[in-house]
Design brief:
Shape: globular
Number of helices: 7
Helix content: 10-25%
Strand content: 25-35%
Strand order of the largest sheet: 8-15-14-12-9-16-17
Distance between the termini: 24 Å
Structural class: alpha+beta
Low-confidence stretches: 1-7, 325-332
Radius of gyration: 21 Å
Number of strands: 18
Amino acid sequence: LGNQMSLQTSELRFKLDGPDGGILALSVDMKGGIDCSIPVTPEIPRVAREKKDSKQCEAFNLPGATVEPVKSGSWVGRVSQGSSVNVDRICFCAHGNGTHAECVGHITKNPISIEDSGWERRMMLATMITVEPEQLKASGESYNDKSKGDDWVITRRRLKAAMDKIMPQEPAEDGKTWWSTSFYQAVLVRTTCPAGTKVVPASRKERRSHKWSNTNPPYFTTQAAALLAGLLHMRTVLVDVPSVDREDDGGSLIVHRAIFLLPCQATSTARKCRLVTETCCFPDPTEAKDGVYVLDLQLSPFCKTDAVPARPIVYPITQITRERRAQDPVKV
């Protein structure tokens, strides 16, 4: 029973940032982890190229992921074609073929890869919120001169409203409520489809093979970007759309620049240790409610690239205890 319990529940402790400080002790349901990724799903070149029969996710008109046997002279890496082993060659583009995490090197002139960006993998406190996109013309917010009034956008006001809903409303201790900015180490923004539209896929199943290209998916407004960028201890933003920016934004990448703290037109100085994680596939709100989770953002071990396939896993928290005694948290 002891071994079984240790596999199902883990005790994690985090040092809280902000003026209140302290230690947060969490009981985490390790058995209840939810995979929020769309995997790279390579297909034979003909299917991937023609796309109409493709079952994989696709964005920005980038080539689909392909798989084919390695060929060398008369040798073909297929047991069915006389080889003793199967040997495949896989080609893919992280930005267009599934869930991926990207660093500031995505938009800098000087190459910066994820392993050079200062990113450190560790468990993070994560806040998941649900936002319904609204049309730009009705939002009172803005983007750039490429945007249109009928564009669907993720706005600051709706982000803020969703964040406010999950903050404690009743006294939690000593007659006072508390909320730490540490809960925003990762922000997971889940979109829902406005009634009567097909702005975003209505289910997780549809998202896994959705064709985003030339659909102008919802994107974040300048004001929403500023809200996220201003979260002091935020390490990554995770979204279920292909980009935080407009599909055709004229190359401005306003939201990326805001999150990475990279001034307009600058190409080198930035908040290197942040990541943007796009094309996620979050659970339905009925499966995982808005709130605080523990996130394990797993990255494929590719080097010398600004983006890699990612596998975000969120774990439910079953109990939270805030400790005020001064002691170092267990490293996780």
